[in-house]
Amino acid sequence: MYDNLHARAHDELVTQYAPLVKRIAYHLKARLPATVIVDDLLQAGMVGLLEASRKYDSDQGASFETYAGIRIRGAMLDELRRNDWAPKSVHRKVRDITEAIREIENREGRDARDEEVIKLLNISRDEYYKTLQNISSHKVMSWDDLGIDEDAIRCTVGDQKNGLHEELEKHNFNEKLAEAIASLPEREKLIVALYYESELNLREIGSVLNVSESRISQLLSQAHLRLRARMEDWIKDDD
Fold first, then answer.
1. pTM for the complete prediction?
2. Domain tally for the chain?
3. pLDDT at 177 over 70
């Protein structure tokens, strides 16, 4: 009897929150290249919802919707990572630019400027900006290189606490990340906030700042690389 009631409650949760899977999938799809198929995200998201319905513990304090949203999004991101189509050259350029930013900022004690990175790498301005665009297009979930997912970024930018990230907080990761985000140049910091906290897509952010979508894409990539350089002690780079 108890097992039947439990199974029924489980099925009701899945049915009730199936629209949440669709909402998260289309929200992610708006940020991804056209090559990403939304049906793949939906399928992965349903797996995440099923896992959430089995593992949810109300004693942890988070609502089921909050917990399920994190598991659904995580399942979708895992699916994207398994199908990472970025060529090795993109991963190599991520490392090269990160190292250049780190070297300049350690030497100068301030934000690295585009011209300085371009000069150190001995590349043209066009090649540099094209590389930033490629990083944005190919390495979709590049924040994961910092050892976190979008929810951790959103939690940090919004200055919120979430019990699901207690392990990160225990190691002072969020504190370090918050400092790194706060130290970004003002425009990059604003773009990170609009993208992760306000959940605007690149086109919408471009409209707010009155610049092109491609330029926002470049600046978001640049913010990622700058954070990557400043979080070097926390990164285990397996590229």
1. 0.61
2. 2
3. yes
Cβ 50 vs Cβ 98: under 8 Å: no
pLDDT 10s digits, 84-97: 656 677 778 888 99
Burial class of residue 156 (count of CB atoms within 10 Å of its CB; 0-12, 13-18, 19+): buried
203 within some domain: yes
Residues 92 and 170 in one domain: yes
